[in-house]
Amino acid sequence: MEQLTRLSATALRAHLSSREVSVREVVEAHLDSIAHGEAVNAMVTIDAEGARRQADALDAQGPQPDQPLFGLPVGIKDTHDTAHLRTTYGSVRHAAHVPTRDALHVQRMRGAGAVVLGKTNVPEYAAGSHSVNRVFGATANPYALDRSAGGSSGGAAAALAARQIALADGSDMGGSLRNPASFCNIVGLRPSPGLVPLAESGNILTPLTTAGPMGRYVDDVALLLSVIGRPDPHTPAPVAPDARGHRWAGGTESQPLRGIRMAWAPDLGGATPVEREVTEVLAKAVRQCADLGADIIETSPNLAGAAETFVRLRAAEFEAEWGHELDVFPEDFNERMRWNIELGRTLSGHDVLRAQEQQTSLLREGARFFSEYDVLVAPAVSVAPFPIEWDYPREVAGEQQQHYLDWMRAATTITMLGVPALSVPAGFTASGLPIGLQMVSAHGTDYRLLDVARAYEQATRFADRVPEI
Length: 469
Description:
Layout: H1 2-6, H2 9-17, H3 23-36, E1 43-46, H4 48-61, E2 73-77, H5 104-111, E3 115-120, E4 132-133, E5 137-138, E6 140-141, E7 144-148, H6 154-161, E8 167-172, H7 178-184, E9 187-190, E10 210-215, H8 218-228, E11 261-264, H9 276-291, E12 295-298, H10 306-328, H11 335-345, H12 349-372, E13 375-379, E14 395-396, E15 399-400, H13 409-415, E16 421-428, E17 434-440, H14 446-460
Parallel strand pairs: 2-3, 2-8, 11-12, 11-13
Antiparallel strand pairs: 1-3, 4-5, 6-7, 8-10, 9-10, 9-16, 13-17, 14-15, 16-17
């Protein structure tokens, strides 16, 4: 049974499709793994009986051609609505909230045959890159239980690393797919804005947030993206082109990255400080990319103003979404959320418009940069997983961080380019903490980016390292 939890999602799907194992067997194996890994605190609301009922129904039905996720156990982020299953948003006020319908991408996952085991932990309202809240407490890193699993999709990343689920959804505004993927030695993809429809969003004009896939391996992530990354006729927003028909066909068996023009930005052109132990791991990763045939040039897009613009637009969104609730339910918001909302209240319409104009300039800079380079590689996070009792790192590489978003600049600045970005396992620090390599490419080239990440992953195999919980 334990071996079933260690298979990749694509390998597990093959066994299920051939009926070598039953869906019920797979579900029981993963429920057992959740029970034995309670110290991680990744899966916070478990629907064991619902999962068993769905498993039995799928076994009776058998694999179907339109169910690419047939029988795969999944976790759903606790900020994404699940019909008849508690969804708290990490908020004490919503601790007993049970939605009546699924979010669109959750509908798609269920329709594709996925079995929802439960919900994955998040920070309060998904604000921040450390998954702790007053409802469920903190999620621990499976590779070191005294360390953070990251966030805001930290419960999802930790559950994947702990072999409690085969696939997970997440979302990313300023690194919430990439940060926990780096911390937990898995793969998290922030797709091109528009590829996964923003069906539940109140603002589809300047999308900072997108849902996205997480898995232990690149092929697992590509599998889930193929299900959730489809147009929605009720979401009239620009959609990234389906790049599956434009897969990269270069490279050789010995040099799978041959022909790739790869930019290496160790601190994103000075946009972020980076701890030495992170840089050391990633410098080795870049040398491995060169050995695999990539043409490496140390350079960066111009990210001037990106961090500040992100903070300003985020504050405006937070005030618009939660400002009224802060006035009515002030006890529902932690200090970081209140700071973000209050910052939004200081902004005029002129301030927001100027920030959108700066965002437009950064989108154009992304298009320019990726006309010259196929892939940008950089830190996914500026630090290794930090102590679980911290709110966030107050200092990075000797530089004081001004607020709880400041240390996340390796991801927030890339968000402003409007492009796909992922974190892929790249190695471990001397003390055994995971480090991810951020890979970034042009808008709409999500599947090509996954191809490059797959070539690196298969040559290095860091994802195979299982934590001892």
